Amino acid sequence: MINIRAVCSNLPPFVIVNDVNGSLVLEGFIPEIVKAVAKKMNLNITYIREPHDDYGAWENNAWTGMVGMLQRHEVDFVLNPDLPRAGVLEFAYFTNPITVEAYTILSGKKIQEAGFFLYFSVLNNSLGTKVGVIIYTTVDILLLFIPVCVPTSPLHIKSEFKVKTTLTSATSSCVGSSEKYILRKNKKRLSLFLPVLVTMWAVGISLVMNAFQSLLVTKLTLRKSQPYIDTMEDLLKTDKTIGIAPVEINFEEALENSSIPLYEAVLEKVKRNFLPQDVVFSDDTMKKVQKGKYCIFHGHLILKNKLSEYFKEFSSCNLHLSDHYFYPFSLTIAMHRTIPRSLYDDFNYGVTRLVDADITGKTFKADLEGSKLCTGYSDTSLRPLGKRPRLKNCGTQHRL
Q: Which residues form the Ionotropic glutamate receptor L-glutamate and glycine-binding domain (predicted)?
């Protein structure tokens, strides 16, 4: 059995470190992969936790964090996958990529409550045409036939009939004074226009019922939302939202010296607000993110994991995860060059085989579904009842 040492940090979802009665208990898919490879290769791994859960950066002509421990050969490899860096190649090998990560932005969303007219979007597109035809027909009937129905007696010719005459009084006048428009000669005097009015009333009621039925089905809680920050350009346009990032991820390495003006301008605004990871993802900070005070820069895989956990705890949230990814990079495991090349090759081969088995994909799929619940919780959309979904069962289709 070969004894080797590994340094680790509590940086979910890759590696989760719990201190139980003075001993480290590791969870996450990276420890699962490494433990499986170690069992196959007959390796005895001793895990050492980095005190500050820091990947490491080049400071004062020396590496800090986990990378610094690897450089000083205090450990044989770094358990947490990290971005391959040129300076680390001087004393370390890198395995094949575990996964590909990219930075993105997590922010809150401005909620716009639905107005009165917004609710009518649930109806079919033909509704406007139908309502227009009804209104046009009604106006034509009133303009064409009300003058005929107006009593000619001097006692009734008064100016009060001009604008104040309602549809009810006009219909009554037609029924009471125009025998040539009577449908049948009996004591019941029906106006020729009453069937038209009844038809219009029936059509109007059906449209109103359809509208309310649609609203009940799609809920009356329709809300539209807009993220406070969706792109780096949005952050540069406002001073109301502050960009923050965990100090442990060395976010400045992705943006500085990039020769991209946008990246460098964003870094100038964000570098004053690097905070410990526990502070960045604290409940208080997340509430401020939802209100638009902060936005968080981090890898999209880690943010999806945090959103999934947040939704499980609070069951509701009003957050937006941007689809505008930037600075994609591979995550690999670094091993010290003093390890025999044959041992490194076997370890790398074992890790690659397990990654090919899509262990990482299965892990991130669950986080993706959880994050969708969190980012889409506050949004509802309306659709007409005319669109009928279909269920497929045993090769047949059944309409609902």
A: 13-72
d(CA 171, CA 335): 93
Q: Are 94 and 336 in contact (CB under 8 A)?
A: no
SS3 (DSSP) at 46: strand
pLDDT digits (tens, 9 = 90+) for 312-351: 888 878 899 999 999 999 999 999 999 999 999 999 999 9
Considering only CA atoms, give the Rg of the chain.
35
Only one residue has tokens 């932005």, namely: 105
Say if CB 218 and CB 382 are below 8 A apart: yes
CA distance 174 to 56: 91
- Cα–Cα nearest to 205, from 130, 151, 140: 130
> Which has the higher per-residue pLDDT, 239 or 185?
239
CA distance 41 to 53: 28
Burial label for 275, CB within 10 Å (0-12, 13-18, 19+), is: middle
Closest CA to 279 of 251, 253, 250, 245: 245
pLDDT over 90 (residue 219): no
Instruction: Report the phi/psi class of residue 167: left, alpha or beta, with left for phi > 0 and alpha for psi in -120 to 50.
Output: alpha
Beta-carbon contacts of 159 under 8 Å, excluding residues fewer than 6 positions away, are none
Residue of 181, 184, 196 lying closest to 149 (CA atoms): 181
Q: Is residue 306 within 8 Å of 14, Cβ to Cβ? A: no
Three-class SS state of 133: helix
Confidence of residue 181 (pLDDT cuts 50, 70, 90): very low
Distance (Å, rounded) from C-alpha 307 to C-alpha 371?
5
Cα distances (angstroms) measured from residue 233 to each of 227, 228, 237, 238: 13, 12, 6, 9
Secondary structure (DSSP) of 317-377: --EEE-S--EEEEEEB-EEETTS-HHHHHHHHHHHHHHHHTTHHHHHHHHHHHHHHHHHTT
**Please, what is the average pLDDT of the chain?**
77
Helix (H, G, I), strand (E, B) or coil at 396: strand
Which strand (E) or helix (H) includes residue 37? helix 29-41
Report residue 64: phi and psi, to 5°.
-110, 180
Q: Which residues are 246's β-sheet partners?
A: 275
Is the pTM for the entire model greater than 0.70? no
